[in-house]
Every structure is written in C-alpha cells, then in structure tokens.
Amino acid sequence: MKLRTIDAASLTPAEMQVYLHHAIAPRPICFVSTINKSGEVNLSPFSFFNVFSINPPICVFSPTSRARDNTTKHTLENVLEVPECVINIVNYEMVQQTYLTSMDYKKGVNEFAKAGFTELASDTVKPPRVAESTVQLECAVNDVISLGKNGGAGNLVIAEVKRIHISEAILDANDKIDPHKIDLVARLGGDWYCRVTSDNLFKISKPTGSAGIGIGVDAFPIEVKYSKVLTGNDLGLLGLVETLPSHEEVSAFSKTDEMKELVDAATSDTHTLHLHLKAKQLLDNGRVMDAWKVLLM
Question: What does the DSSP 8-state code read for residue 248?
Fold first, then answer.
C-alpha cells in the first residue's frame, strides 16, 4: 500500500475538512433542539457527535464556527444562554427534512416550522423534542469547551442525558432497540450519507469463554499467520478463539466424510493450499473452530 503523507499545517481549513469528513465516516447525526432566554427555538443537525460516557450518560456534539467569517451558530449561542438541549436521533424517513434545517436561517426563525417538524413538549428541559424522531434524549448541558478562536473551530457541548423517549415501533421482543427497525442514517463527506439497513448489518462474535479474551494472531502457527489465502478478517476471526482444538479433535475431524476426500486428493505440494482454501470456506460459513481443525491438520 502506497501512502501519501500530508502535513496538517500545509492544508487550508477547507482542504482539511474534505479529508477529515471523508475519512472519519460514517458519523451519527445529532439533531439538536435548543432555546434562548427569549423563548426562541432553534433546530439544527451536527455530525460532530457521539456518546462519550455511560455513567454519567454523556453525549458530546460540536457546533463549529463558520469558516467563512468565524461567526457562531445559533445552537451554540442558545446553549450558552439556556444550558439545555434535546438530541433527536435521525432516521431515513426524516433525513431530507433534517437537512433543510441546516440552512443558515436568520436568528429567531423556527426550523421546526421551516422543515415541517412537530414540536413536542419535553419533560425535564425547556427545548421541545422532535415528535417525528424515534429516539429523543433530553439533556442538561454541563459544559461548553471552545477548541479554538479561528473560523472552523469546534465547541464541545457536553450534554448529560436526563430522560430518554423511544418509539415502541423500533423495540424488539426484549424492549431493546432493534438495529433492523431503527433505520439510522449517518453523514459521510461532501453531499454523501449512508443508511443502515438489514442487508448491510453484520455481527462480530465475541469470545464466549470465561476469560473472554482471544488468543490473537501472534499465537498462530507461522504458516497460518502468513497464509496466502486467508485475509485479515479471516485472521481476526481465528484470533477470537480462546483455545485451539485438541489433537484428538483435529484427528477426528480429518476422518469425517467432509474432509477425507480433500485430504486424500491433496499432494505434498498443494496440501497447505487446499487446507487453507477449505478453512476460508468454513470461516465464510461461520464455522471458526472447524476452520482451525483444518488448519492444524
């Protein structure tokens, strides 16, 4: 892999934005409602956003100053006046309306009305919730940390979650949020977004033993570690096991109908190749321990 190295100091803010927005993605979208002392409501999306703590429950988002003139956004002004907000999670059904609220409307313009969203009174904070959002987090703003004085500088808003509202339509049988139902969207670089749908969801299995720690790639036999067939993802799957199969298990598996024909057909020159190809096939079908039995033959 050939790498291009760039000194951050050599880039303009606009150039830096392009690189970072495209590389650090997808980013969840914080659709935040705020209010000022005069009672004027603001609604705006931010993709500099994530959850940073569970106890206490903390979300952080960052309204950046405008790069063109270094002016601040109404959301930042509001949370400095009234340190409360509601973080409304954005799904695919509302993403176009959400984008509409990102326009630079004049101070005092209510983006709920501009985008056609419904205000829903909050229980513990002054800003209203977005009724169309399937997850709404009422938050107290604990702190606002300025990251710089130039245009494009961020301002970390530390928001502590006080109350959560979740649509029952996105819950599974155990009252947990179902990733197949929530239909999330995320921000990429430029005009690009992505949608989290059932066909692009996948699981990564964790070690299931008492220790909960995989053996790691450094514990592999050399011929497995430097396999010409197995990919990095394959090695990662193999490294999650806590113990390797025993000699007895390997021997028993080699005598199964599935393996007997393969073992008999392989010559001394092709033995390793055939075994690694078979192991990869087993890994693709989720049979990790059987793949190890093949690799240890």
Answer: H
